[in-house]
Amino acid sequence: MSALGGSADFDLARTEGPGSGQIFRSFRTAAALGWKMEANWTDPLLFFIYSVAKPVASALILVFMLEVIAGPAGRANRGFVVVGSALWSFVVGGIAGLAWSVLDDRERYRMLKYVYVSPSDFLVVLVGRGVARIAVGGMGALITLALGVVVLGIPFDPFRIDWPLLAAVMALGLAAIVAVSILLAAVCLQTRQDSWQYPEAVAGALFLVTGAVFPLAVLPGAVQVAGLLVPFTWWIEGVRRALFPTGLSAIGGAGSTWASLVGPGAPSGPSIVLALLVTGGLATLGSMAIFRASERRAKDRGLIDQTTGS
Amino acid sequence: MSLRPFLGEPSASPAEAADWSRRRVIGNNLRSVLGRAYPRIRGSLREKSWVAFEIGLPFLSTSAFVFVYRAVQAPPEYIGFVVLGGAMTAFWLNVVWMMAAQLYWEKDQGNLELYFAAPMSLMSVLFGMAIGGLFMSSSRAVIVLVVASTVYGVHFTVLQWPLLLTVFLLTLTALYGLGMMLASLFLMWGREAWHLTQLMVEPVYFVSGLNFPVGRLGMLGALAVAIIPLAVGLDAMRQLAFAGGPPPVGTPPADIEALILVAMTVVFILLARVMLRSLELRARREGRLTVRWR
Amino acid sequence: MPVTDSSSGLPGAASPLAVPAIQARGIRRVYAAKPEPVTALDGIDLEVAPGEFFGLLGPNGAGKTTLIKILTTLLLPSAGQARVFGFDIETETKKIRRIMNMVAGGEQSGYGILEVREQLWMFSQFYGIGVRDGWQRVDELIEAVGLGDQRKQRVSTLSTGQRQKMNFARGLLNDPWILFLDEPTLGLDVSAARSVRELIGAWKAAVPGRTVLLTTHYMAEADELCERIAIVDRGRILAIGSPAELKKRVQRESLFRLELDRLAGGPASLAGLPGVVSAVAATAEGSGAADEARQTVVVNLVLEDDAALGGVVVALDPLGAHIVALAKSEPSLEDVFVELVGRGFDDDHAPEPVLRPDETGHPDVAEAAR
Fold first, then answer.
1. Which of A77, A98, C121, C279: disulfide with A181, CB 3.0–4.6 Å?
2. Cβ B64–A310 below 8 Å, yes or no?
3. Which chain C residues have a beta carbon less than 8 Å from that of B15?
């Protein structure tokens, strides 16, 4: 046995697929790498500012729009808007995670092909790489919520939090965020370098239909139906319900499609969880299928290691 | 096989070859604008996913803010403000993503040192990038403006078309001047350019009054008008596009804002020139024009 | 005063009053790095005449790329001065950029979505060539470098060798007075590397009077292409001279391996000829089975210089000997490097080099010989 390698005999066992331990190891390693890269670009203070400035600014835009323009009517909805906006920053950061990792590793670090040919599952590594941005988005969301309570005076009673509901919707919601992120990664495998903006564009579009900052009842009926099929709509509703049980519902209420289908009143906690499970599950299955198809197409056309600068 | 092809008369000496007239320098810079715009335009024609992602989806994003105002029953002119703001977002994103962050990415790709080693001005290259991105941005802005106005029933009342067009062009020139300044800063500051880009997007949306008249921000609005071209330009365009509406609150009239934009253009471009030169000097001193590891 | 004038007989060398193509004095470059600063260049003095093909030869980390970046105005020296055709690299950068171009090996630069033709045209605009003229020039250069079939192919789909040819075409777009080549064959296979070297040689032959500065760590490349070479290690120039001059440092005599069909009197019959230092029968390692089978005589000749070979050849006929094979045995440039530094190109563990240029202490061998 030489110092450079192991046994001279070929070991067939090494060609066996990875066990669950290897999958977890790949995920953990990729997540650690993602965090290092996400947190390493500047000093901690600027990193903190960056993590906070974007979601806080988004929230302030909406608060201002409502309160300065709409007056007391807007002020009454402050909590609704701030919570939705804070959670939306979580969504934006999360769905961009995998997509930007694909673009990063392919165009800048030129490592994507090496990751791809390694025995680790490609999707697992990408998800690991992307979770760091989800974490940063979550941090920003928490800080925005805290500022909303402390500075903007949103009424909040920590003893009234519905913890089981919160735990359930957070787990399912994070899975939905990862699912949409996988879908965007699939798109970016096919597109060129200038697709950095696509995740934000998608988030901006979904912003319209998910009841993040205004009730779905304002939208035309068909658009409301589209919104009810998006898992984020149920996730935001669930978190709002868990944290602010007496707050306004984005899904129910007068004039909403939900009311016409189910009846007056907001959806209950179990309804929310079930709807999130179904819509999130469909999103997950769909995004996985699209990702695998995209991966095949990328292999077929030699896109895994292409560079597409312009 | 001859490697001798050349065009025109060869120069007699290096000194003669290096001595360019002012006219030739200007011509070189103008051609460089064209040269750098070319790959961007070609790229957008070859790979067309941007049509959906950079036009279709932003229309929906603008629509979201329209519905926010409808939800709170805001005065109807605010719908028009949001639509106009949504259209102008395209140009701001062009400046931030396609200019400010671009030098950093060029360094990563290994193109930056080739740019510095060539005789043209780096400002020409940046301007070319902006012009190249203008194709996509303009498409986005026009479609958002036209479709959103039609769908949401926005009525424009323009009494001074020449001033409106002038303000629009001045907004672009001031924005591009700012973009050139940011390009040099990003190159020196950022290890991850788009983090800085992200910092520029949402907060600037807020203080520029992308979705509401910036004058309503009080002192903050006044400050924004003083230093952010998007805030000034958008406010002036709103006044001109919806003439006859309520007078501006907290901001000057459109003709004064046009003059502010002229001043911004001059100042930003001069500052950009100074900063790019000092950037180059500093980058050459510290060896930052090339990157061995990313 | 330029060192490389008529005394070295370089083609295209200018008169003593001509401005040197490159003039560097006391160039130092220190990089601020952790845990301690790195000195990449430590007092480089260099002069390259117009029209010269000059090489910088040294191992990785010797400072070759740092020096070329300074000369191409991409990097400032920490100390010292340098000029390119009389233009200062710190204050007259624009003028230098108008008359020079550079091509580096292992480059991944370029816009993948563009075609070869478009990529080159874009750069033609950066060098101030007219829009239509640019397309014409690009098409001519694409044919000249052998990329005619790839003209409409996207840059991202080119092979490494094709990409380097494209880079070389880019380097010639503005008809540069001085071309800087930084390891241009790095990462290329044998065929592609040869192709690029041929292009370089063909260009130089087509436009005599143009100057080339080539950095490389491939001995054969420097030997083949360069008229003069500076051997660089750890930021210092250890020796400058033509390949032949540098090899003479290691071995002043000329070594030949002479295979004859017969030799009356054996090698001793050649030993007394003018200019012959020694003539001995080849050892078992020096002669192979083929020699034995052919029953030839192999002689290792040591001559004072190459000129003595003529006398040996003339003397063979009266001895009834006919030449079967003749090969010159030369030290390689790596032998020169080892002689200078005390370690090979790949050996990082040797102690700090002891500068042993020659008796005068001047690294330029030709200058020292005068």
1. A98
2. no
3. 19, 85-86
Query: A99: which chain B residues are within 8 Å (Cβ-Cβ)?
Result: none
For chain C, give the secondary structure using H, E and C: CCCCCHHHCCCCCCCCCCCCCEEEEEEEEEECCCCCCEEEEEEEEEEECCCCEEEEECCCCCCHHHHHHHHCCCCCCCEEEEEECCEECCCCHHHHHHHEEEEECCCCCCCCCCEHHHHHHHHHHHCCCCHHHHHHHHHHHHHHCCCHHHCCCEHHHCCHHHHHHHHHHHHHCCCCCEEEEECCCCCCCHHHHHHHHHHHHHHHHHCCCCEEEEEECCHHHHHHHCCEEEEEECCEEEEEECHHHHHHHHCCCEEEEEEECCCCCCCHHHHCCCCEEEEEECCCCCCCHHHHHHCCEEEEEEECCCCHHHHHHHHHCCCCCCEEEEEEECCCHHHHHHHHHCCCCCCCCCCCCCCCCCCCCCCEHHHHHC
CB contact under 8 Å between B31 and C141, yes or no, is no
Chain A CB contacts of C153 under 8 Å are none
Instruction: Please state, as a whole number, how many other Cβ atoms lie within 10 Å of the Cβ of residue C285.
Output: 6
Task: For residue A178, give the nearest of A168, A170, A189, A166 by alpha carbon.
Answer: A170
Rounded to whole angstroms, how far apart are CA atoms A214 and A209?
9
Q: Hey, is the C-beta of C355 within 8 angstroms of any chain B C-beta?
A: no
Q: Is C120 on the interface with B (CB under 8 A)?
A: no
Interface size between B and C, measured as CB pairs under 8 A: 147
Task: Name the β-bridge partners of C42.
Answer: C28
Average pLDDT over residues A216-223: 88
The complex scores an ipTM of 0.78
pLDDT at C289 over 80: no
Are A251 and A233 contacting, i.e. CB atoms less than 8 angstroms apart? yes
Is pLDDT of C351 > 70?
A: no
A306/C112 CB distance under 8 A: yes
**Interface subset of A 164-193, CB within 8 angstroms of B:** 187, 190-193
Task: Provide CB contacts within 8 A for B54, sequence distance 6+.
Answer: A197, A201, B90, B136, B139, B140
Q: Is residue B222 exposed (0-12), middle (13-18) or buried (19+ Cβ within 10 Å)? A: middle
The pTM is what?
A: 0.76
**Whether C137 contacts B7, CB under 8 Å:** yes
For tokens 């509703």, name the residue. Answer: A237
Contact A310 C113 (CB under 8 A): yes
Chain C: residues touching A (Cβ < 8 Å): 108, 110-114, 156-157
Query: B72, A196: Cβ pair inside 8 Å?
Result: no
Residues in chain C closer than 8 A to B20 (CB atoms): 98, 128
Among B228, B217, B221, smallest CA distance to B260 is for B228
List C300's β-bridge partners, or say none: C257, C280
Copy the structure tokens of residue A282.
Answer: 């469909």
**Chain A nearest C-alpha distance from C190 (Å):** 24
pLDDT in tens, B202-211: 778 877 877 7
Q: How far apart are CA A262 and CA B142, in angstroms?
A: 41
C109 to chain B, any CB pair closer than 8 A? The answer is: yes
Bridge partners of residue C257, in order along the sequence: C300, C327
Work out the mean pLDDT of chain C and round it to a whole number.
82
The CA distance from B19 to the nearest CA of chain A, in Å, is: 32
Q: C35: cis peptide before it, omega within 30°?
A: yes
Joined tokens for residue C330? 């030369």
Q: What tokens does C54 get?
A: 């000059």
Residue contact A310–C110, C-beta within 8 A: no
Instruction: Please write the tens of the pLDDT for every residue from B220-277.
Output: 777 777 788 999 999 999 999 988 777 667 788 889 999 999 999 999 999 999 988 8
Does B119 sit within 8 Å of C202, measured CB to CB? no
Is C131 within 8 Å of chain B by CB?
yes
